[in-house]
Amino acid sequence: MRTSSLAVPAGRVALSAVAGFGVAAAGSLTWGGLLVANLRTTPAVPWAAAVMAVVLWLLWSYLGGRWWPARTSAARRGLLRARPVPARLFAGAVGAGLLALAALAGLWIVLVRVTGAGGNPTLDAVAAYPAITVVAGILMGSLVSPLTEEAAFRGYSQTLLERRFPTVAAIALSSAFFALWHGPTQGFGWSKLLFFFLVGVVFGTIAWLTGSVLPAIPVHIAGDLVFFTLIWPNDAARTVIWTHGADAWFWLHAAQTVGFAALAIAAFRWLARSAARPPVLRGG
Questions:
Q1: Which of the chain's termini has less CB crowding within 10 Å, N or C?
Q2: Phi, psi at 70, each rounded to 5°
Q3: At 156, is the secondary structure helix, strand, or coil?
Q4: How does pLDDT run across 198-222, given as a tens digit for each residue?
C-alpha cells in the first residue's frame, strides 16, 4: 500500500520531467540544427532565423491545442495555459519580473566574481561569423528559448505538477528541471544551477499567480537579450575576488542584487493580492 501511494507522485514527477524536457528539446534542438546548417552552408545569409520563426509558430500552435489528434486538443491547450491576462495584472507581472531580472543580473555577476564561472559557450561559437548572422542568431535565440522554455517548464511541466503537488513544490520541481536543462550548455557548477533555479522560481511564480505563461515571456525575452548583449560578453573580463579582491563594482552588484530583490518581493506580493492568489512563499 505504501509503494502504491508513492507511485502516483513519482510517476507525475517523471511525466512532468519528460514533458518539460521534450517540449524544450523540440524547439532548442530544431533551432540548433538549423543554425549549424546555416553556418556551415551560407553563413552570410541568416535563413535559419526565418525558418525557425515558422517552426516556432507551428510548435506553439500545436502545443496550444491545434490540429490532430482532436481528442488531445483540450488537454494540450490546458497544459500550455497561454491564457489571456487582464492588462493591469499583465503589466504588474511584467514589472515584478523585470525587477527580479535586475536582481538576477546582479546575482549572476556576483557569482561570476566569486566562482570565475561565467560566459555563454554559444556566443563563442558564432562570434567569428558575419554581423548580420550573429544579430539574427541572437534575436532568434532570444525568442526560441523564452517561447519553448515557458511552454515546456511553466506550461506543460508545472501544470502537471500543480495538479498533484502543493504550489511551492510544483514551482520548485519545475525550476529544478529548468536548471538541469541548462546544464549541458551552461555547465553543472553549483552557481549556474542555483542561478537558473532562481530564474525558474521567478517565472514559475508569475505563471502560478496569473494562471498563464504569457506574462513571463516578455521578461524572459528581455533577460536573454540583456545577458546575450551586456552580461555574458563581459564575463571574461571579470576578476575573481579571491585573487583580486572585492572592489567597488563587486559591492555595487551585491547591492543591486539585494535592493532589486526586495523590490521584486514587494511587487510579487502586490501581484498575489491583485490576482487573488495566496503568495507562494507562504505555502501551496
A1: N
A2: -65, -30
A3: helix
A4: 999 999 999 999 999 999 999 999 9
